[in-house]
Structures are given as structure tokens and as C-alpha cells.
Input
Amino acid sequence: MTANFSFECIASCQETKARAGVFQTPHGIVETPRFMPVGTLANVKTITPAQLQDTGAQMVLSNTYHLHLQPGEDIVAGGGGLHKFMGWHGPMLTDSGGFQVFSLSEMRKITEEGVTFRSPHDGQIINLTPERSIAIQNTLGADVIMAFDECPPYPATRQEVEAATSRTYRWLERCITAHQRPDQALFGIVQGGVYLDLRAKAAEDLKQLDLPGYAIGGVSVGEPPELIAQIVATTAPLLPFDKPRYLMGVGTYREMAVAIASGVDLFDCVIPTRWARHGTAMVQGERWNLKNAKFREDFAPLDETCPCYTCQNFSRAYISHLVRSQEILAYTLLSIHNITELIRFTQKIRNAIIKGTFAQDFAHWLEPSTESSDED
Ligand SMILES: [Zn+2]
Output
């Protein structure tokens, strides 16, 4: 593995493919399975790095596409690199920008060379290629960087997905050649849409490249949760056992539990902070809208069992008041709680894997859901 990186599996579940591990990076360890909060523009919205650390966050994600547009990677490098610039000294990961280019930008044109799109910022035409994405990520300086991939939409025809998947592989080879920094680990991304045989082939092909880590991408783009579970169950076990596995853009309780049972280690999702800004708390698997009248005079904490700053110091009534008044502190307090909640969920799973009780203790999360997805 690349210098300064290692992954060790310390316990495996007997009944499922779940494992507990330790991922070592130049900025510290990540105990897996673990949820990673998203700091899109080199900040996790409304909370400070000190507050972020108190949530139990170990690795934080930031978005290459957004940072390239604003403030630009040279400013980040001028500020000492991503960690120093944003004041977060733990492990970090940047995505490649591919997902945002494919999902957010208009007027994009995909060729073998890369993607051309119009900046939503100032209308300027931008070319993003595998080489450019890696150069930007080398300049930003996160511990883990991601290969530039083509994420096909859902639904897409088999032919379209096949073309995107083989292009993603050719782009990955170019990313490997372009990558300059041995203190950064480059992860490859398995694509293949909802076509399980394409996913399996992509996983086998990527495995041959002996990368320091692997991601499953192109999920949670509109397909039903049971399809995501199938994709992950097919793909994750084919990836090398001794490398970290990261499921991109997934962070609901059930989807994380099911993916962990298939052998996934890392997750990221904007849900905890996005919901916080909508006045929603995540409490033991449920979603609570703090604007609801029943919280007006409810002086209990959000969750009595939660060790977070919000639950230790404030009542549901107070947070409800802040949400109704649109006070910024509401979003800070809810973000602190929601991030803590999802990290605790993955920590509880980790502890159960180590104790050998995961399949039992989390059985209700592993059964197929009868309700609609807990995702927005
Ligand atoms: Zn809390």
C-alpha cells in the first residue's frame, strides 16, 4: 500500500460479511465502519472543527468540484493545504468532481478526453479530465483522493452504462499515471449502474490494479433501496479484503447497516447537515420535525442517551423555539446532534461486530424495509 497508509481488519462477523477495521492515514486513524461528515466547501456547514471533532468524526469529506470553483485549489494550497486552510487536522478525503459534473452542471459534454461544462459560478467553460481532477486533488492535499469517473444516470440503458463503465476504467488508468503524491491514497471507483454483471466485472478489473482502497459509486442516484442493497451485496465482497471499501453518498441508517453486512467500511452523506437546516433531528432511527407543536413545551433533550453537546445542554422546546425563529444556532445544534447520531450508529455497529453480536443486535435494520426509504 502507498506509504503511510494501512488497513487492518480486527474483527469479522460470522453470520454476515461485516468487518471492523482500522484505516491508518498520514493524519490519523479511522475506525471502521464509520460515517464521514461532508464539508463541501472546506467546512461542515454551521459547525466549527472543534465541534466537529466532538461529534466523533474521524475522516471528513470535501468536494473537489466546489473547491475548484470557489475559492480555487491554489488558494487552498496557499493556505497550507486543505487541513490547515480549514483547521481540521484529522484524515480527509476529496471526491473527484465527477459526480457533481454529471449531476449539477448544465451544458456538459463528455468525450474520451474528459468533460467540458459551463461553470454555474461565472459561466466560464471548464474542462475536467482525469489528469486535471488528480492535479486539483494533489494541490488540495486530502489524505484520500478519488479517481475521476463517469457516473451514469438512473435509469440508463445497458449500452450506456457499459460505455460509462469501461470509460471509467480507462480514466482510472490515466488517474494512476497522473497521481503525484505518495502521501495521498488514490481510491478507484466501481461503476456499472444497476447491472450486476457489469458491477462484478468492474470490481474484478479494479482489483487487478492493487489500489490502496476502493469505492462503490453511482448508487443513490434515484434507484430504489433494495436495488442499492443488491448492487452492494454483489460488489463489496469482490473487492480486496485487506483494503478499505467506501460506499459513496449513502448515509441512512438502514442502507448503512445493510451495506456493512456486505462488507463496506466507509460512508458519506449530506443528510445530517441538510436535514438540520430543515429543522429535522435524527433520533434513534426516526426523523423529527422540530416545528411540530408537540415539541413547544417538551423540555427533555432530543435523546437522553446521546452524549453530544446539544443533548447535554438543550431541550427540544429550546431547539424548537430556535427553529421557529430561524436562528442560525438551531442549525448548529441540530447538525452537531445529527452528525453525532450517525457516527454513533456506525460506532455501535462496530462494537457489535467486535463483540460478535452484530447480526442479532441489528437484525431489524438488516431486514428488507416495508416502509419507504428514510432518505429525503
Ligand atoms: Zn445529541
Remarks:
- The longest strand covers residues 6-12.
